[in-house]
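Case study 2.
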Amino acid sequence: MRIPNVLVILSLLSFSADAFVPQRVAFTRTPVALDASTLERLPESAVKVVITVPGSATKAAYDKACNELSKTISIPGFRKGAKIPPQVLEQAMSAKGGRYALREQAINSLVGELLEPALKEEHGLEPIGQPTLEIPASEMAKDFTPGKDLELSVKCDVWPDIKWNKVEGKEKPYIGLKGSYKRKPFDQKKFDKALGDLKERYAVLEKIEDANHQLQMGDACIVNMEGYMATDAGEKGDKLPDAASGERVEVILGQGRYMTGLVEGLVGAKVGDVRTVRVTFPSALKDKTLAGKNAIFDVTVLEASRRTLPELTDEFANQVRAGLTAETLRKELQKAVDSEDAKEFTPARNAALSKALAETMEVDVPDTLITKQAKEKFAVMMTDMRNNGVPDEEIKKQISPENFLKYKKIVKDSIVRDFKVSMAVDEIGRMEGIEVPDYQIEEQMQGIREEAVKSGEEFDEADIRPRVAATLMREAVMEFLAENAELDVSFEDEEFDEELMRKLAEETLAREQGASTVTQATAIEAEVVEEKAAKPSTSEVVEEKPSVANVGSTKRDYSSMTLQEKAYYSLLDAGALDTKEK
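Prediction:
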């Protein structure tokens, strides 16, 4: 998989000025005495800040630009690195087509130095992405005079705030979220076995005094056992090691408890009887000298007891653990038994929670974050196309600013919702004091290290660890929300999807017959649908987005598609993807 190539291409795209990657700009600045800046709120978590810069600051910025240029430029009559008069520098730059370059650089440096402290210190806001001057620096430079006051009007995205919706009767709107999802039925057989095993641990033994009582299934007995290897003729051979025999051994007469033949050989025996019992050791036995071998035991029955299993009552539950009731014990056991099966449907559960959570608050998501996330999704889609056999040259043709903007329009709604949910989950974790133990983070990191060693790949642990911690934190918050939610779970038996299998078979045949690039796109669809059938994905609950397809495009069933499929086929039908054979 050559993902880096696609990512590099994306990074080199010349997107519009408002399409930028969120970043924190590190400034090295000297304190500048400013009058208070004014701020105007704009849609999508953007602001316009007006900063009045004193003449001393404009002169300092201009002098700094001149000094930096003096260190690198070569001008006849001045040695390299010498201090060169500003007018000489401007003449030299003008001859190269950059008449106002120094003044433009001074203006941009002022924005870099002054915007962040103005937003943070005066207005308590966190800037993200690249700021944009309302009047471009290239235009402002024409009227810029070092030493004179300057008014900067700058637009910038800021980190958004959550506005929780008020819900009548609820102090916290995220408690009691309502939603629904489907999963396979609870495994009652597994539960019954677990409950039976638990009861077995607390079985009550009553010694049987009747000398004529014959042992039956469910009874217990104390026996002495002396064992021998069985010869090929079925006779007693060498004596077994002491570890394979024993005195006063408790044997519970139940199916599948011991080596084959032991329990069956004791059924019907009385106290005082000596039974010759033929057995077969389990093939998985650790002692390979005995594994799968036949043996003969002389078994003497010393005592017999009747075993009575307790009923599931409050008294029994309290015996298991103080304070438990029959109902709470049943629920705990159900949860423990279902834990593995439930994991398979955690994505579907979380999708239901996320959908409900998104409706509990309002967040203005800045375009900076939307663009960044859209770029990442676009890169993944291009990479998937390559992995499905589309040539690199074809993929490069699809990577253009125009195609990206079409794709961004398609995925914007889902990105906004996902960001709202992610931000809400982080805020809930903070408010509820949910923390992830360090050992859990370390366990995950150790797994990543081991995988990296196996694959021979390197990774930046300082970069990965915070992501792992954030992921575990969000998982913990989703568990908290699930425990306090009112989810309607539909239990449905898994059914064989004959139509899906038929479709996959047809598309496999088409690929084998030498499908064109368009057919390769259909193959992508088939493989994604197959993956969807195997494991639900949180992205599958995204509401269907309006297609940008032409009126005459192929009719498609978007309702069953993932977000990635919708975006791909919308671009395809809009003519944004070149799928002609070469």
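The radius of gyration is 37 Å.
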